[in-house]
Structures are given as C-alpha cells and as structure tokens.
Amino acid sequence: MHNRSFIRGAFILTVANIIDRGIGFVFRIILSNILGPEGTGIYQLVLPIYFVSITFLTSGIMAVTSRFVSEERAKGNKKNMFKILKITFLIVLIIAFTISSLLFFNTKYVAEKLLHEPRALLSILIFAPVLIIVASSSVFKGFFQGVINMIPASVSEIVEQIVRVSTTLYLIQLFTGAKLEYLVAIAIFGISVGEIVSFLMYILFYKREVKIINKEMPYDGKEWDTFSIVKTIVVTSIPITFSKLIVNVLDLAESLIIPSRLVVSGLTHSEAMSEFGKMLGMAVPLAYMPAVITSSLSTTVLPAVSEAAALKKWDTVRLRINQAIGYTTLVAFPAIILFLALPEQISQLLYPSSPGVGAFVRVISMGSIFAFLEAVVASILHGLGKQTVVLKNSIIWLGVCIIGMYYLTAMPQLRLFGYIYSFIFADALILMLNMFELIKMTGLRIDYLNWLIKPITASIIMGIIVIIIHSKLLTVNVNMWINIFLSIFIGIPAYLLLCSALKLPYLEDLRKIILLKN
User: Fold this and answer.
1) Which end of the chain, N or C, is surrounded by fewer C-beta atoms within 10 Å?
2) Cα separations (Å) of 230 from 82, 225, 516?
C-alpha cells in the first residue's frame, strides 16, 4: 500500500514531531516566561484535567483501532476496516459527550474543591466542549496508524500547533496586562482552536484515503459481525485505556498533592506553586525532549507488530522490536549526556527568570532512559495483545510514584528531588517487568552491544567534546546562545561519526530511509 513501512512511518512521524514539538517547545518557553512560575503552576494544574479526559476518551480506542485495522488490512478484509472505524467513532462520540457534559456542568467543583485553585475555572469551561472534537480526531488518527499512513497525523499536528501558537500569542498581546487566570485561559483557548482545525484536516485526509484503499483493495474480504466488533473493541480498549490513564492520573495527583506537600515541607503556597511550575512546566519538558522521537516509534511500532503477529511472522516481530529499541537508545543517550553536561547553562538560557531549573533537569535526565524505553516496550505489548499485563504493571508504577510523591516531597531536605527519585525508580521497575513479559512471549534477545554499549560509549565521548568546546568558547566571551549552539552543533556530528565507526546498524537503516531505499 503505497510502500508504507514501519521504519519510514516512524521517520515521517519523527520529522513531523520534531517540527511540531520544536514549535511547541519554543512556545512553551515563551509562555512560561509570560506567565511566570506562578502562572505556569496554574497552567500545570489545568492541563492534567484536560489530559486525563483526553486519555480516557482516546488512548484505548486509538490503539485498538490502529491494531485491528492493521490486522484486517494484512488479511485483506477491507470491509472490516471501515466497519471498525464506524463503530469506534460511534462509541467515542457517546462517551465523549457524556464526559464533556459532566465536566462542563461541574467546573466550579473541580476548580475549587479538587484543584483548590478558583483561577482555573475559566480554563476548564473552555476546554470541556472541545473534548468531543479531540475524541473524534483520535479515531481517524488510529485508522491512519492502522494503514501505516503517518502523513495525515503529521500534517494535522503541525498545522494544529501553528494555529494554537499564533492564536495564543495574538490574544495574549491583545490582552496585555490581564490577570493570570485570563492569560492561562487564553492559552487553553489556543489549544482548543488548534484541535478544531486538526479535526477538519483529518476529515479531508480520510476522504482521500478511502479512494486509495478502494483502488488498492478491490475485494471486501470476510466480514466481521457488528456485535463481535463492539465486544472486541470494548474488552480490548478498557485495559489499554486504564494503563494509559494511569500516567494522567499521576499528573492529576501531582496537581492535587505536590503543592500541599511542599507547603508541609516549609514553603509558602506561592513558593510551592513556583517550584511546582519550574519542575513540571520547565524541567520535565526539557529533559524529556527525546520523547519527540521515541513517541513516534511507540506509535508506529504497534500496528507494525500487530500486522506481523497476525500473520505469525515472529522473526519480523523480533526485528521490529529490535529496531524500535535500538532507535530509542540511539537518540536518547546523546540527549541525556548533553543535559548532564550542560544542564545549568541550557536551563538559564531558556528560562533566565527561573533559577534552579537546571538542577531538576540534571536529575530527571539521569533516569529518563527508563521512561523512553518503557513507552516503546508498552506499545509493543499492546500490539501483541498483552494490554492486561501492561495495566497490572502500570498500577504498580503508579503506587510507587504516589507513595514517593506523598512522603518524600514533604521532607525539607528532599522536596521535589525526592519525588523525582521515586518516579525514576518506578520507571526502571515497570521497564524491567514489561521487558520480562516481552522476552517471554517473543523469545527476544537483549542486544547489549548495539542497544547500550555502543551508543553510551559514543555519547560519553560526545559529551566530553561538547564540554571542551563550551569551555574554550567561554574563555573568549562568545555569546551564550552561540556558545551552546556551536557546542551541540559540533557534538552531534561527532556522535554520529562515532556511531558509524562503532558500526551501529541503525544508522544504515536511517540512510536508506533518507534515500528512499527502504
């Protein structure tokens, strides 16, 4: 089907994610500086409610649509592909309308009683109705992932981000000097406008995709009865939804627990909100920048593994897993070393009015590899039908994080660092548990040399080169922006050359993709 492969799909989505997240990252820096630590803290209180709602509505359905559409595509059952789409769309609309209504008519309770922040009320009122649009888009997104066509999602997300940023910045400029709650509400309104535009683009792409499928798959294939589809979708999506929801439940728990526990540790409410904003609104997005690429791998590996498993091609399944994990470590380790080498310098450059962000970035980066790998491994297990295992392990992960959040954050000598240590430990634990299940099911062998030793070696040498260049440029008083840019600009090619010298196999795959040979 139009030469759609797992690797090229990941590459397309990665390029789009880099553009999308790049725009979003720059915007987030601008927004954080406009809102300040306290305004960013309010923004971070609102976002978990939004993301929990979206995850509940979309994550399970999107993954299930992607998985079963890819399986039916592999079997040549065209009619089932469209039938799955229609049924999931109807299910999502019913649930989305219910959740949106409940949230809209209970906004005051959520803002004042759950978040203990009345200034969040307007923002929640704005995003509640848009949940129906977001949920509808997720069905289309899952369908396109299932046919391994990443272009619609890529283009839609970039356009959505551009619309969101331009709308938000224009309105903030228009209402300069407004209260913090109104500035936060404008930022949420920008997200809502972007989601509406994205949904309209998915509709246009879907009409084009239907023509392609009808042309390349002339036969309907064996039809799946409606009741079986509904039952399978519901039963399969529930554990996936809850395992994904657990991450957002943690975000919500952070909003509800961390500020109050920081107050217990001896900070004022304003200081607690500032520290909360620095860690979750500034340090976490910075340290998790490699997720721009690893999330693309998580998205594309699910239908690729499902398709191969449906045809009993286990060698292909193991190959896809090896590639997904290999690409993750190839990208993650150099980014981690960069943040360990220059955490204060990068943080001060991006957040000049928020001292202390660099200390958070350094510690978070040290354990971020576990989060990157866990996301990919969990997606693979979902593609292999092991969603219940992922859910069970995710519950363990959530328990460890909440215990650490509640007890360690209140300790004056640890505060937010205690929580960071706890979620790093939790990430490592769930990765180990999920990896054990994956090895048991597929017979996968851990490639220590290519997954770990080679990229870590190349990354450490790159880190040394970056530190030397940065130090030399400091002695001649080069502008800090130019200093950091040149240090990284020289460091990345050095890393790639080192990987090539170490004969890391994934670089050859990347070359083939760029030259359109794969």
Assistant:
1) N
2) 13, 9, 39
Per-domain boundaries in the chain: 6-446
For 452, counting Cβ atoms within 10 Å of its Cβ (0-12 exposed, 13-18 middle, 19+ buried), the class is middle
Query: Which two structure tokens, joined as six digits, stand for 200?
Result: 């309209």
Per-residue pLDDT of the chain (518 residues; tens, 9 = 90+): 454 555 666 677 777 877 887 888 788 888 888 888 788 888 888 887 888 888 888 878 888 888 888 888 888 888 889 999 999 999 999 999 999 999 999 989 988 888 878 888 999 999 899 999 999 999 999 899 888 788 898 899 899 999 999 999 999 989 888 888 899 899 999 999 999 999 999 999 999 999 888 888 777 667 788 888 888 888 888 888 888 778 777 877 888 899 899 999 999 988 998 898 899 888 998 999 888 777 777 777 777 788 788 788 899 889 889 988 998 999 899 999 999 999 999 999 988 888 889 999 999 999 999 999 999 999 899 888 898 999 999 999 999 999 999 999 999 999 999 999 999 999 999 999 999 999 999 999 999 999 999 999 999 999 999 999 999 999 998 999 999 999 999 999 999 999 999 999 887 766 655 544 44
CA separation for the pair 202, 186 (Å, rounded): 25
Query: Quick check: 305 and 382 in contact, CB under 8 A?
Result: no
**Distance (Å, whole) CA 446 – CA 498:** 22
Can you give the C-alpha Rg of the chain in angstroms?
A: 23
Integer distance in angstroms from the first to the last C-alpha of the chain? 14
Q: What are phi and psi of 62, to 5 degrees?
A: -65, -45
What is the rounded CA–CA span in Å between residue 114 and residue 105?
15
Q: Are 357 and 282 in contact (CB under 8 A)?
A: yes
CA angle 117, 118, 120 (to 5 degrees): 75
Q: How far is CA 139 from CA 45, 67, 130, in A?
A: 27, 12, 15
What stretches of 265-356 show up as alpha helix (H) in DSSP?
269-276, 284-287, 291-310, 314-341, 343-350
DSSP 114: I
CA distance 339 to 333: 10
Task: Identify which of 106, 102, 111 has the alpha carbon closest to the alpha carbon of residue 56.
Answer: 102
CB atoms within 10 A of CB 449: 12
Separation CA 411–CA 261 (nearest Å): 9
d(CA 380, CA 402): 26
